[in-house]
Prior knowledge:
Elements: H1 3-27, H2 47-71, H3 76-97, H4 108-134, H5 142-159, H6 168-189
Amino acid sequence: MPIKKLKIISLTFTFSFAIILILLHFLDKTVVYNTGVVSNFALAGFGWLFFISLVILSIGKVLLAKMVRAVGQKSRLSNWLYYTILFSATTNFLIGVFPTGTGSQVTIIAALHLIFAILSFVATGVFLSLFVFFNRHKNKPGIFFKGSVAVLYLICLLAFPFFPSSFIPVGERILIGLLTTGILLNMALVD
């Protein structure tokens, strides 16, 4: 498949993820943005739509990995980037397969969900950072902005455990917004 076609399809999938996630905030009033984490959408009436959004994001990332493989020379950096994006896509899918739990009781499924969510956030931070080096030879204006998004995302990710518990739902949404912006920027700059 040509790179341009891959880029358009991948951008469409990732942008659709963002639109569905925003739409869920209006459709499902049981998850309040400042008190409930995004994963709680899986437990509410529109859990199926939350799962679909994660599948869409995973497909978008797989297509991004395919673009990296098609564009990138067979370097170590290109391979690391390719496999990190695929790992991130896999963890996104598994977040949907293992929904979060309810209440204070921790189940195996809820623990798996949390582990995959953390792995997904970390893998996305790594591949956003690797992308800065992957495209370093291009003199496009978006490279600096993309690098800034990656750095800001990593700072927020490292600071996340130190957020007060009342800020975690909002902080999670900030991280998701930054990672979606970073992914979209990276996709747009691959050619």
